[in-house]
Amino acid sequence: MPYSEQELKQKYNPEGSILRRHQMRMLEMLETIDAICKKHHIPYWLSSGTLLGAARHKGFIPWDDDLDIELLRKDYLKLMEILPQELPDNLVLQNNETDPNYIFIFAKVRDKNSYMEEYGSYDRIFKERGIYIDIFPLEEMPYCLAWISEHMQGQIFNQLNNKRLSEEKILKRIHAIYRFNERIGYPILRFLSKLFINNKLRHSFGTAFHSPRCLNEIFPLTEMEFEGKRFPVPGQTDAFLRRYYGDYMKLPDLDNLHPHYSKIEFHEE
């Protein structure tokens, strides 16, 4: 790497910086989720940039401001039932059941002692807006059906970005679209996906992330160091990351980094 790990840390997330405080809050949240998953024998693993950070930096990518985990959809549904009873008071599960204005099909665990505003302002209608961890369910589906579901979900964003509508009208429309997708659209696509034999796992219907995952690269899970602790990762992490990023040990263009949020605040606990 053209920069040492210490140089990268000093440049992007030195101790005491806003970003480093954000990362450490997410790490605390991950430890809580990890303990709950272990207690209830729910397999999950670090994914996307979080997994890349573990492999390349043994922790967060120095400029990274989110944390992602994945699990199979059947385990995700089980976790959604357990988290509301198991999370401590400073954390809350966010999905469409706990926050009716929440528009995604994947869940977040949110920190109650912080506040964020994301670029695009799509989160302006959410009840919970603290620091979060994304929890992505995976299921088998062909790319064509994943693409269709993305555009079905995209209709929600079209409404959110419609400057001609009142906020009340926007909420009414996105609730109708979400209900249709969840109750009719996605179940039909889920049924159709059973007609395809492809053995490719993708993020569940309604996301914009379609990169395939392979079961034999994920299971059996192993562990990897992340910020001085150890968490579950795919058994073939190298193959998993190469499928997703190519030469993942190579740093990206450091002049073209894009944070997720425009504002962040930490509240006293």
Secondary-structure blueprint:
Blueprint: H1 5-12, H2 18-39, E1 45-46, H3 48-57, E2 68-72, H4 73-86, E3 91-94, E4 107-111, E5 114-118, E6 132-140, H5 143-160, H6 167-193, E7 201-203, H7 215-218, E8 222-226, E9 229-233, H8 237-245, E10 261-266
Parallel strand pairs: 2-6
Antiparallel strand pairs: 1-2, 3-4, 4-6, 5-10, 6-7, 8-9
Helix pairs in contact: 3-8, 5-6
Describe this entry's structure for a reader.
This protein has 269 residues and is an alpha+beta fold. It has one domain (5-142, 199-266): Beta Polymerase, domain 2 (2-Layer Sandwich), CATH 3.30.460. Helix content is 42%, strand content 18%. It is built from 8 helices and 10 strands. It has helices at residues 5-12, 18-39, 48-57, 73-86, 143-160, 167-193, 215-218, 237-245, and strands at residues 45-46, 68-72, 91-94, 107-111, 114-118, 132-140, 201-203, 222-226, 229-233, 261-266. The strands form 3 sheets. Strands 1, 2, 3, 4, 6 and 7 form a 6-stranded mixed β-sheet that branches. A two-stranded antiparallel ribbon has the order 5-10. Helix 3 crosses helix 8 (237-245) and helix 5 runs antiparallel to helix 6. The longest helix has 27 residues, at 167-193. The mean pLDDT is 95.
